[in-house]
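Step 1: inspect the first sequence and its tokens.
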Amino acid sequence: MPQDRATAAELLAGVRAFLRQEALPQLQGASAYRCRVAANILAIVGRELDQGAAADRAERDGLEHLLGKRAAPELSPEAALDALNAELCAGIRSGALDGRRAAVLAHVRETVRAKLAIANPAYPALKD
């Protein structure tokens, strides 16, 4: 809830910059490694704040379209996404979605791309 400056994203970026630019050069070995891990985690959290809600909405919309049904309105957004993904998995396992293979693959590819863009935007597969 951004009532004042700095926003959560700005705070994360500031701590990440401190770790990378000031703390890390003074560290060695395992401490340097843990500092890099911490900085990377802060970057992931920042991207999650920035892109996560849109990625979840796109995944949910794609699943609803693919499965031909809406998520149960009484479920939380996270639970609804989990339930739709469980249905997708069941449809794949049972062969019920075999006739929609291209659509399933397109949805899964796009979902994985969105997740990778948050977790590791430098991942080579995102370049193609």
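Step 2: inspect the second sequence and its tokens, then contrast the two.
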Amino acid sequence: MAYRSTLGASPADPDVDRVVRERLATAGVDVVDVPLELESTEEAWPVLSDLDNGRGAEAAAANRARFIRDHNNTALADLFTAVDVLVTPTTLTVAHGYDQHEQNIITADPCWIFNVTGHPAVSVPAGLSDGLPVGMQVVAPHGADEIALAVARRLQVVLPPPPVR
């Protein structure tokens, strides 16, 4: 099993990284830090979304978006020859308030990468950091949804109910 605390150039919050690593250790998971160089999907996401929804895109932007997706698919295929799954933080920061969604959309968060590549990925609670929930994401090779789900079931924790304010 592989765990990578950063994807691309965006480091995870140290508290998020700590909570995910502690959960993996508690679950008895063998952790292997494997180098993984993925392209940011920030520019690819809106272009691919437009294409998927029939809105079209400039040829250069579509070619760049496809290059990013293909590069990341190749890098992940190489990774999955060495490990069964990749575990990442779901997001690079702790949770934000319900009214702060728009300003907290970070397309560099790990979940965006797998939305672009189409790898099966499932997010589960990992624990708390200063009372805020932290999630971890289990990513498996294409077509291995059952592996992602089995590992996620093994890793998930039950969080306490949120405080009422």
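Step 3: confirm your contrast with the notes below.
The chain has a mean pLDDT of 84. Helices lie at 14-26, 44-52, 59-79, 110-117, 145-155.
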